Amino acid sequence: MDSFREKASSARKKKLKELLLKSENRICADCGAPDPKWASANIGVFICLKCSGVHRSLGTHISKVLSVTLDEWTEDQIDSMLQVGGNSYANTVYEAFLPKDYVKPTANSSNEERTDFIRAKYEMQEFVKPSLRIVSSKSSTDSPMGSKHGHASQSFKSEVGMIEFIGILKIKVTKGTNLAIRDFRTSDPYVVLTLGQQKAQTSVMKKNLNPVWNEELKLSVPQEYGPLKLQVFDQDVLSSDDLMGEAEVDLQPLITSAAAFGDPDSLPDMQIGKWLTSDDNALVEDSPINVIDGKVKQEMTLKLQNVESGEVELELEWIALNQ
Ligand SMILES: [Zn+2]
């Protein structure tokens, strides 16, 4: 069984390598740097290390970055790459309406120039033929023309340039309980999550001290990650928004236990770790880390700090890159 899986997987990798070796794919689709070792599986392009950092910062709903050599590619991802046929074809779509005098980034461009171009090209799809630009939300996820941008990307605001990311953290902000009153009798709360340079936020719940968000936010996790910071604010249209408490999530138990157990797809449903309550953290009770249906997940309830009352519930999911 295992050797069958290995054979099938190495045959698919061989197809991928052949595609990579075509001359058009020997330079980065975005900046022209030689010898790209990364790819965006859903867009169908081969890209260099620096551009892959920008692609990751856009979130996997826009670009799913994989290493050509290290990652396990699924058959669908390889087929999607083969279907697009690599950089030339993808660029005829994504750069179809690139202005003649537009200066594309080069291998030595700054991260800022690179980021501006890559966001315009794939997130805003500014250079795509106008009739293709507006994408239906139920279009197939893996087609280059069906890349879903819009709702999900609006909550994902990233200021990161070139950073090596070790994984993606999905954070479902489930609900708040007994939040503090900031206006006359109530508050209009929203949650802001911060990890390093990145921020993501939920929508505002009008006049609600027990809001149910059920909103999923995504952040890329860099190698040198610190705690995930959570802040609840009251939207105040007349003055600046008031803080309604904050809490920190230690990501280390989640990330290290996931690394210790390896590919979650090969694990049965089980508990692999736990983040324990202590006097100096915000946990209401111990927070177990579980593998559920091949995904690494952690649920938690946080007691908000620096405020008179309030709790927030989260569900984290960890997706490691380059396992
Ligand atoms: Zn590049």
UniProtKB/TrEMBL annotation:
Keyword Metal-binding applies: yes
Name of the protein described by the UniProt record: Uncharacterized protein
SUPFAM superfamilies listed in its UniProt record: ArfGap/RecO-like zinc finger, C2 domain (Calcium/lipid-binding domain, CaLB)
Keywords on record: Calcium, GTPase activation, Metal-binding, Zinc, Zinc-finger
InterPro entries linked: ARF_GAP_AGD11/12/13, ARFGAP/RecO, ArfGAP_dom, ArfGAP_dom_sf, C2_dom, C2_domain_sf
Domain of life: Eukaryota
Domain Arf-GAP: 13-128
GO molecular function: GTPase activator activity; phospholipid binding; zinc ion binding
Domain C2 as annotated: residue spans: 148-265
Pfam families: ArfGap, C2
Cross-referenced PROSITE patterns: ARFGAP (PS50115), C2 (PS50004)
